[in-house]
């Protein structure tokens, strides 16, 4: 495993509690849309074993042509040791990156794609949308639906509807509107549904989509292949319990 030490070249205040850290790209370093990375802080490998409290699995919110590795994250007043240290870093400080991989590249199967996200999870989809804008081959259209209870929506210059590009974007700040919108999108029985958010958010969305007749193979998650069955095992609609609200 190769560990790259790289510097922060810019910090963007996206909202009151969301920041994007732009990192210098190591030479010949590349990735594809939908990629994640392991981000580690100084001291993570100073002992006999890695200090896992100083390592996080993060999505990359940029594409290689942007010449920086973007990490977008929410940092609340009460946060973990990792986020506390990260929030105190400045331009020029070093961090480590390693183990880059994509679980959710943009599928080009001549179908409609629906991007379902919660809060800062939208950062995972930013590269997919930019890749689609650059090359729309074999994608019918993309619809993004994001829920953020803060009302401070991310990346609005990119996530705005563009009919001429067959791209629509919708932001909501409450669960009722969000799940009603998901039901409406699920009337497309042939679409591809990408979901990014907490595990609880994934489970709730999968339950709703499956109840509407969407098959497991139509659902894309930012999860390793070996854990996908935990979320996508066949479930009959009558076995769903609880509600979507």
Summarize the structure.
The chain has 245 residues and is α/β, with parallel strands linked by helices. Helices cover 20% and strands 31% of the residues.
Task: Record the SSE blueprint.
Elements: E1 4-13, E2 18-24, E3 35-40, E4 55-59, E5 68-74, H1 81-87, E6 94-102, E7 111-118, H2 122-134, E8 139-147, E9 167-172, H3 175-185, E10 192-196, H4 199-211, E11 219-221, H5 228-232
Parallel strand pairs: 7-8, 7-10, 8-9, 10-11
Antiparallel strand pairs: 1-2, 1-6, 2-5, 3-4, 3-6
Structural description of this entry:
- The protein is 20% helix and 31% strand.
- It has 245 residues and is α/β, with parallel strands linked by helices.
- It has 2 domains: 4-102, Elongation Factor Tu (Ef-tu), domain 3 (Beta Barrel); 111-239, Rossmann fold (3-Layer(aba) Sandwich).
- The N and C termini lie far apart (43 Å).
- Strands 4-3-6-1-2-5 form a 6-stranded antiparallel β-sheet, with no helix packed on it.
- It has 5 helices and 11 strands, in the order E-E-E-E-E-H-E-E-H-E-E-H-E-H-E-H.
């Amino acid at each position: 495993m190769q560990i790259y030490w790289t510097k922060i070249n810019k910090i963007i205040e996206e909202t009151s509690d969301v920041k994007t850290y732009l990192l210098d790209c190591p030479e010949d370093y590349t990735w594809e849309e939908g990629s994640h990375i392991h981000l580690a802080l100084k001291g993570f490998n100073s002992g006999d074993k890695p200090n896992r409290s100083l390592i996080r699995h993060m999505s990359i919110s940029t594409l290689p042509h942007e010449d920086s590795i973007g990490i977008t994250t929410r940092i609340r007043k009460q946060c973990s040791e990792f986020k506390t240290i990260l929030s105190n870093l400045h331009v020029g400080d070093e961090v480590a990156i390693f183990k880059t991989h994509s679980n959710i590249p943009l599928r080009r199967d001549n179908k409609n794609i629906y991007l379902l996200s919660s809060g800062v999870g939208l950062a995972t989809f930013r590269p997919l949308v930019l890749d689609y804008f650059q090359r729309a081959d074999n994608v019918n259209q993309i619809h993004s639906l994001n829920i953020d209870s803060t009302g401070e929506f991310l990346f609005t210059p990119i996530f705005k509807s563009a009919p001429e590009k067959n791209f629509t974007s919708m932001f909501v700040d409450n669960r009722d509107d969000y799940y009603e919108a998901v039901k409406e999108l699920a009337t497309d029985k042939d679409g591809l549904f990408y979901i990014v958010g907490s595990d609880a958010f994934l489970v709730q969305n999968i339950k709703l989509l499956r109840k509407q007749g969407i098959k497991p193979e139509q659902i894309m998650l930012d999860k390793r292949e070996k854990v996908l069955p935990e979320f996508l095992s066949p479930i009959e609609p009558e076995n769903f319990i609880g509600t979507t609200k």
